[in-house]
Amino acid sequence: MVDTQRVKQTMRVLAQIGRTDRGMMRLAYSKAEEQATNVLIEQCQAAGLAVRVDSVGNVIARRQGRRPELPAIGIGSHLDTVYEGGTYDGTLGVLAALEVMRDLNARGIETMRPIELFSFACEESARFGFSQIGSKALASLIEQKDIAALTDKEGTPIQTVFAKRGLDFSKLEEARLPRNRLAAFLELHIEQGPMLEAKNRSIGVVSGIAAPTRFSICVKGHAAHSGSTPMNQRHDALIGAAEITLELEKEARREMAHGTVATVGDIEIAPGAMNVVPGETHIKVDIRSISRASKARVVQFLYELMEHLRQTRRLEITCRMLSDETPVQMDEALIETVESVCRSKNIASMRMPSGAGHDTMNMAALCPVGMIFVPSTGGISHHPDEHTNLSDIITGIDVLESAVLECAGNAAEQKAGAAKDQ
């Protein structure tokens, strides 16, 4: 049985590390994140787990199985936060993985397969503008050259950040896991949206993870006096950017059945004066979907729209693709395992996509993957008001543990079953 008080206490300790008046500030590789990582390592060692930190800063803690040569079952999430974030995103998944290990210990359950806890480094893009460095390194999805030019907002190179943390950036590739290391990976996470609460469901069984295609777009027109330039003689860069924003919203709405969304989340206007027609506007665009085809249609629409605006509004528009990631489908057998657990426990669940990216999508390059969501109060996340009820947390951990046992195998039950067959 999951120990509610132990979960509360561990959550309370982690919630104090990096807390500020404006929310959580536990950025990747920061002193606060290192402190939280050290607490996790101490807790894992106290639970009798074998712990190591790899070359990119991932924490991996192993609970041995009766057959240690078998591929392990992986569980976990991340401890870093965004700027002024909440206390549940990522952290809950790491705590849940630890609690599964501790509860199995308390119940004296030996599994056939080993179980490995993962606390992934730099899941959030907040510090470097590049997400999931730890899991991408594990899954051989990045090389040194892919992130060597990254700097944080203070201009500190990633190599310097690694060195301050006692990590050697030149050894990044040493974090790669062999493809036979894991039999499956499961991540418990807060939903970060409103659907579970709206549908009165305790568990979300993730069907797929949307992946973003991101662009940096520069719209150039001509700056001009706002009072003396007639409306029909303007080349307003902001109007062009606004039309991109509005038309992109309409196109994404047409693709809603595929879980597709499009967002213009960043805008800069030059020269930025009330009495000057904007001569240059920079926007950042995020298009994501669980459907590769749907996302491709929206991306194609964006290209055609920009060409249309070049002609009709006589604007110069340049577009740079920042990233183009592939949506990931969860393993059907793991989906059915989680759903079966929920049915056996009379827990209300629903299948649903994840609009946010997670480390699980990278682990899919190594093994079958699955994700479990628990409700987010008010659908709020990446904010100090982020919250999940304790009862939902305990339910989520209980479902995770049962699913892990299904995958890892209860050694005592398998031995009893074998004896009965004889």
From TrEMBL:
Residues 215-307 form the Peptidase M20 dimerisation domain. Pfam families: M20_dimer, Peptidase_M20. GO terms for molecular function: hydrolase activity, acting on carbon-nitrogen (but not peptide) bonds, in linear amidines; metal ion binding. Its cofactor is Zn(2+). Zn(2+) 1 binds at H78, D89, H189. Allantoate binds at R214, N275, R288. Keywords: Hydrolase, Metal-binding, Zinc. InterPro entries: Amidase_Cbmase (IPR010158), ArgE/DapE_CS (IPR001261), Bact_exopeptidase_dim_dom (IPR036264), Peptidase_M20 (IPR002933), Peptidase_M20_dimer (IPR011650). Zn(2+) 2 binds at D89, E124, H382. It comes from the Bacteria. Binds 2 Zn(2+) ions per subunit. Gene3D superfamilies: 3.30.70.360, Zn peptidases (3.40.630.10). NCBIfam families: hydantase, PRK09290.1-5. PANTHER family: ALLANTOATE AMIDOHYDROLASE, ALLANTOATE DEIMINASE-RELATED. Belongs to the peptidase M20 family. This is Peptidase M20 dimerisation domain-containing protein.
